[in-house]
Amino acid sequence: MALAILIMAAGKGTRMKSDLPKVLHKANGKPVINYVLDTASRLRPDKTVLIVGHQAEKVIDATRSYQVVSVLQEPQLGTGHAVMQAEPPLHAFSGDVLILSGDAPLVRTATLEKLIAFHREQRAAATVLTAMLDDPAGYGRIIRDRVSGEVLRIVEEKDASPEERLVNETNSGVYVIDANALFKALKEIRSDNAQREYYLTDVIGICFGKGEKVSAWSVADADEIRGINTPEQLKEAEKILEQL
């Protein structure tokens, strides 16, 4: 089956305390986005789409050696809005869409291969990569049906109830979604949430609400889902990358 990869790289990264786009900060001398693009290329996708925004030209210039199509997210109205920008270059695409974050360089190719295989074995419309964390603070929570175990929705921490915040299965921000299901669901998401943004996570609940199968596959090493939002997290990622 065909595979397209979307990489979200539009963010400012204000907590990095630098005007440089977050994905261009270097880990062990190499831009963070390059680690993600290298991992993506090893999957041999039919098409890779890079979603840029803050200082878009700098990100495009830094990634010219990769076979990617760049699309602009301007203004930046959330992760769902970011993925909406990828619809034009994928208008004729039929297959699975793997969505990655440009600031999460630790996810391994083998993990993504297993995620894609699981998604296809399950014949799911959407599959999310999850991780079990002792301290899930800051992450979206995976809400499952207590009987069937199926994924009902993903709730962002700022929108979670006290009970939902106790859930320690967390969203990695990595998804495999059937292209047709993805772009149909994106037309239905709304921005009536704490952030006033269009959340990509809402696609999961929409797919479930339509009776489509939504699956989740949990990674064994929770370090793989770490994103980089602060200089301290960048230093932690560098140590892990040295061991890979």
TrEMBL record:
GO molecular function: glucosamine-1-phosphate N-acetyltransferase activity; UDP-N-acetylglucosamine diphosphorylase activity
InterPro entries referenced in this protein's UniProt entry, alphabetically: GlmU-like, MobA-like_NTP_Trfase, Nucleotide-diphossugar_trans
Catalyzed reactions per annotation: alpha-D-glucosamine 1-phosphate + acetyl-CoA = N-acetyl-alpha-D-glucosamine 1-phosphate + CoA + H(+); N-acetyl-alpha-D-glucosamine 1-phosphate + UTP + H(+) = UDP-N-acetyl-alpha-D-glucosamine + diphosphate
Keywords, alphabetical: Acyltransferase, Nucleotidyltransferase, Transferase
Domain MobA-like NTP transferase: residue ranges: 6-132
Record bears the keyword NAD: no
Matching Gene3D superfamilies: Spore Coat Polysaccharide Biosynthesis Protein SpsA, Chain A
The protein's role, per its UniProt record: Catalyzes the last two sequential reactions in the de novo biosynthetic pathway for UDP-N-acetylglucosamine (UDP-GlcNAc). The C-terminal domain catalyzes the transfer of acetyl group from acetyl coenzyme A to glucosamine-1-phosphate (GlcN-1-P) to produce N-acetylglucosamine-1-phosphate (GlcNAc-1-P), which is converted into UDP-GlcNAc by the transfer of uridine 5-monophosphate (from uridine 5-triphosphate), a reaction catalyzed by the N-terminal domain.
Protein family membership: In the C-terminal section; belongs to the transferase hexapeptide repeat family.
Full protein name: MobA-like NTP transferase domain-containing protein
Organism: Chlorobium limicola
